[in-house]
Design brief:
Elements (H helix, E strand, L loop, with lengths): L10 E8 L2 E13 L5 E5 L5 E3 L5 H10 L7 H6 L7 H13 L17 H9 L12 H14 L12 H14 L5 E4 L5 E6 H13 L8 H12 L1 H4 L5 H9 L2 E5 L3 E5 L5 E6 L7 H11 L5 H11 L3 E3 L2 E8 L1 H7 L1
Antiparallel strand pairs: 1-2, 1-11, 2-3, 2-9, 4-6, 5-6, 7-8, 8-9, 10-11
Length: 334
C-alpha cells in the first residue's frame, strides 16, 4: 500500500506544554527552500509522498484561468481558498456561479455549516441549515464549473479525473511541483487529490511567490499570488491564521487538511511541512519560525503574527501552558 513517511523518519517539531509537563508531541517533516530551490533546512523525510489536499488550490485556480475563466479580484482568491463560509465568502461564490450561468445547486462539493460563527448562527436560526456554498472549497468548485461553461464541457462530471478540467489541473500541478504525482485519490470535497512531496509543494509555492515580482513568470500565477495577498480574507477568513500571515507579512500561506501548511516569502523562500498526526494546531508556529530561522522574515515579524494566532493552554480560567517549538526547530533560531 502506498504511504507517507513513517514516524521513524519524522522529527519533533512542537510540544503542547501544560505547566512544566510536555503533554503532547507533534512530530512531522519540514523543508525550507531558497528562491533557487536549494535546501536551506530539512527536518525529517521531505521526499516521501503526502496528499497535497488544499495546498494545491492556488494551482487549481491557475488551471481554471488557463481554461479561460475570467476570474477577477476576490474571485481569484476564492478559487484558491479554504474559506470559513462567511456571508462575504458565499456572496462572491454565488456571483461566480451566476456569471457562469449556473446556481449553487450545480456545485458538487458537500454541504456544510459555515465555520464563521455569526454566519453559522444565522444559518441555524433561519432554518437554512447546511449548504454547498458554505463548504470551504465552494470557490474552487465554482471555478471548475465556470471552466466547463466557458468551454462547453459537461458540468455534471467536472470532478471526474478524466474530465478536461481535471486533466488541466493535473498538468499544472506537475508543472509547478516539478513532480509527477505518485498516486491520486479523492479529496474531502470530492475533487481529485495528488500525492507529491513536501519538497515539491515548497517548489511550487516558491515559483508562485516569485511570479508577483518577475514579469517573465506566468501571468496567471502572478494574478493568483497577487489576489491572495490583496484579498487575504477571501483565502481563509478575517482573523484566521492564513489571512493574518498574508495581511501582516505578505507571505503566501495555504493550509491543507491533515496537518499541512505551505508558506512562501516575497523573495521565493518557501516552507512546506506536515504534522504526521494530521493536527494543524502547531503548523503556523513551526512554519513562521522556520522562515525566521533563515532570515526570510524577522523574529519580531513572526512573533507579531504568532501572538494573534496562538492561544494559551488553559487550566480553568487561567493560562497554564502553551505550544512551544521542539528542539530541532528551536535550535535553528538560537
Amino acid at each position: 500500500m502506498p504511504e507517507t513517511f513513517r514516524a521513524s523518519e519524522a522529527v519533533e517539531l512542537a510540544h503542547y506544554v501544560r505547566g512544566d509537563f510536555i503533554e503532547s508531541r507533534h512530530v512531522g517533516s519540514a523543508v525550507v527552500l531558497d528562491p533557487n530551490g536549494e535546501t536551506l533546512v530539512q527536518l525529517g523525510n521531505v521526499t516521501a509522498p503526502v496528499y497535497a489536499r488544499s495546498t494545491v488550490k492556488p494551482f487549481q485556480a491557475i488551471a481554471a484561468m488557463e481554461l479561460h475563466v475570467p476570474l477577477r479580484g476576490p474571485q481569484v482568491a476564492l478559487a484558491a481558498a479554504s474559506h470559513c463560509g462567511s456571508q462575504e465568502h458565499q456572496d462572491v461564490v454565488r456571483g461566480m456561479l451566476a456569471q457562469a450561468g449556473l446556481s449553487p445547486e450545480d456545485l458538487r462539493c458537500p454541504v456544510d455549516y459555515p465555520e464563521d460563527e455569526a454566519t453559522r448562527d444565522e444559518a441555524i436560526r433561519s432554518g437554512l441549515g447546511r449548504t454547498r456554498l458554505a463548504f470551504n472549497c465552494s470557490g474552487k468548485h465554482a471555478a471548475f464549473l465556470w471552466a466547463c461553461t466557458e468551454n462547453g464541457w459537461d458540468t455534471e462530471t467536472y470532478l471526474d479525473p478524466s474530465h478536461p478540467v481535471q486533466q488541466r489541473v493535473a498538468r499544472v500541478i506537475a508543472e509547478y511541483t516539478q513532480e509527477t504525482p505518485s498516486t491520486w485519490s479523492v479529496d474531502g470535497c470530492g475533487a481529485p487529490v495528488p500525492a507529491v512531496s513536501l519538497r515539491g509543494l515548497a517548489t511550487a509555492f516558491s515559483t508562485l511567490a516569485q511570479s508577483r515580482l518577475d514579469l517573465s513568470k506566468n501571468a496567471r500565477a502572478m494574478t493568483v499570488a497577487t489576489a491572495m495577498l490583496d484579498y487575504p480574507w477571501a483565502v481563509h477568513g478575517h482573523g484566521l491564521p492564513n489571512t493574518l500571515v498574508m495581511e501582516d507579512l505578505e507571505v503566501l500561506a495555504k493550509l491543507g487538511a491533515e496537518g499541512l501548511l505551505v508558506l512562501a516569502a516575497p523573495d521565493g523562500t518557501s516552507v512546506a511541512l506536515k504534522m504526521l498526526d494530521g493536527s494543524s494546531r502547531a503548523t503556523t508556529l513551526v512554519g513562521l519560525s522556520l522562515l525566521a530561522s533563515v532570515g526570510a522574515i524577522t523574529h519580531e515579524q513572526a512573533g507579531g503574527v504568532l501572538s494573534q494566532v496562538l492561544r494559551p493552554i488553559m487550566g480553568g480560567d487561567k493560562p497554564v501552558g502553551s505550544l512551544r517549538l521542539a528542539e530541532p526547530v528551536a535550535d535553528l533560531l538560537a
